[in-house]
Amino acid sequence: MSETSAQTLMRQGREIGRQEGRQEGRQEGRQEGRQEGRQEALQQALLTVLAARFAPIPERMAHRVRATRDPTVLAHWIAATAKAESLDAIPFGPAGA
Questions:
Q1: Does the pLDDT of residue 74 top 90, yes or no?
Q2: What local confidence, expressed as pLDDT, does residue 71 receive?
Q3: Is 79 domain-assigned?
Q4: Which of 59, 82, 86, 97 has its CA 20 to 30 A from that of 25?
């Protein structure tokens, strides 16, 4: 049984839709990967600055850093840590999930 023109068009449309969906998924995956990489780099930078200035780092503080996902918050904490006279002077607010 041969395929009608309408069936051919529907099959081609589905294939185009699948290709577009895969492309969109790859783009979203790359973007999420870059965001996670930036977040992890900021977390590690903050832990490095904390350790350099105030070792040993209390586990509750290290946990707070690792739980924070917001790059703006992490960058703020890095700057605050660089200027702080003590651990208590660093304004660690609620972790951004």
A1: yes
A2: 94
A3: yes
A4: 97
